Amino acid sequence: MNFELDQTELAVIDSVEHVAREVIAPRAKHYDETETFCAESLQALAELGCMGVNLPEHYGGLGIGSLAMSRVVEAVAGACASTASALTAHFLATDSILIGGTEAQKQEWLPRAASGELLGAFALTEPAAGSNPADMRCRAQREEGGWRLHGSKHYITNAREAGFIVLYAKTDAEAGHKGISAFVIPQGTAGISFSSPEKTMGLRGSTIYELALDCWLPESALLGTEGQGFNTAMAVLDRGRVEVAAMSLGIANAAMQCSLDWVRERQIGPKPLAAYQGTQWRLAEMYAQLEGARMLTWKAAVRRDSGGRFSLDSATAKLVAAESAGFITDAALQLHGGYGYIRDLPLERYVRDARILRIFEGTSEVQKIIISRGLLEAR
Ligand SMILES: Cc1cc2nc3c(=O)[nH]c(=O)nc-3n(C[C@H](O)[C@H](O)[C@H](O)COP(=O)(O)OP(=O)(O)OC[C@H]3O[C@@H](n4cnc5c(N)ncnc54)[C@H](O)[C@@H]3O)c2cc1C
Questions:
Q1: pTM surpassing 0.90?
Q2: Start-to-end CA span in the chain (Å)
Q3: I need a surface site. Which of 14, 25, 190, 251 has the fewest CB within 10 A?
Q4: What is the pLDDT of residues 12-41, one digit of tens each?
Q5: What distance in Å separates the CA atoms of residue 354 and residue 35, rounded to the nearest whole number?
Q6: All domains of the chain, ordered by start, with CATH?
Q7: Is 74 one of the catalytic residues?
């Protein structure tokens, strides 16, 4: 498998790493402590063209491969996981249009999303339907000239800040997952109300909301064709899981680098913490998990561009990378002792931010279901 990147991709990664270090990382603590939406960091990424890093050039995107895209997400997450979460939620929205939209819808929405003019949100989860979206209750019924949407969604990242929301609803309540369709809802549509931002454990510079809907949409708001929404959402999540895996690498690598600096500096009795074998073994375990997760993430990224099915690869990468990020951030905090627990250092933030990686875009348990299904179907 080829993990080489071309000169354009390397230049994009280089410029994102620079902005992540100089602009995004210095704001991360402020966003976390004040629970402020990470608007300036997203703006800095928009100036690099990165709001369209997942899109082809003819829709205003950067047109780089998924491996390079995953390196961009890793760099952003290592600096500020909240910014990476807002960014990748935007990718779920634009990928929905890229995969499920008509050519006219792609032309209408994607260039403005890629430039950063419009932020996107992806609304699938409902209070009664998370791991099993086929149970969703949100309804869209045909009316003269359009659709009436009724129901609620919750935990929707970027929803209030977004210029458009891609929302999934049942157009045929009797048809199970085949009765789900997707809609593009512009900001300012009458009949949608938003909760206050939820109070979350981590990713406090990113926002999630509950939405209550009783709104009318024109016919043109239907994304692609009726009944195609579930397949679109599943294809989008296959792609998104590579991004969550890349986020996991970013947070885990940041915690790993802090740990390497710390154990060299910290004196315990006559010698540095790094000189104790217990420390060395812990570092080796952290590194082995990080590199294993990296290889699976890169493999899934390459498979994402190959045109074939890659659900098994993306679910495996997401499972292993998210679980590894949990292990590595916790181990890093432990190596820092009491200092790790104090909010002056970013260790406790890494632990809080990493926890969601095992939950959103399909919990670890859901990834195991996808993996085992893929294995059993292949026989
Ligand atoms: C910070 C944050 C951001 C989010 N952003 C978005 C967003 O932008 N858009 C969006 O649509 N959603 C979003 N979500 C929702 C997220 O994707 C869901 O929370 C997640 O998919 C899990 O669904 P649930 O919370 O309903 O858990 P449930 O489905 O109720 O699961 C509860 C537990 O049951 C387990 N479980 C479920 N089914 C099985 C099974 N078959 N076998 C064994 N165990 C099982 C789960 O693994 C979990 O441990 C976000 C959530 C959070 C917290």
A1: yes
A2: 23
A3: 190
A4: 999 999 999 999 999 999 999 999 999 999
A5: 17
A6: 7-117 (1.10.540.10), 121-229 (2.40.110.10), 237-377 (1.20.140.10)
A7: no
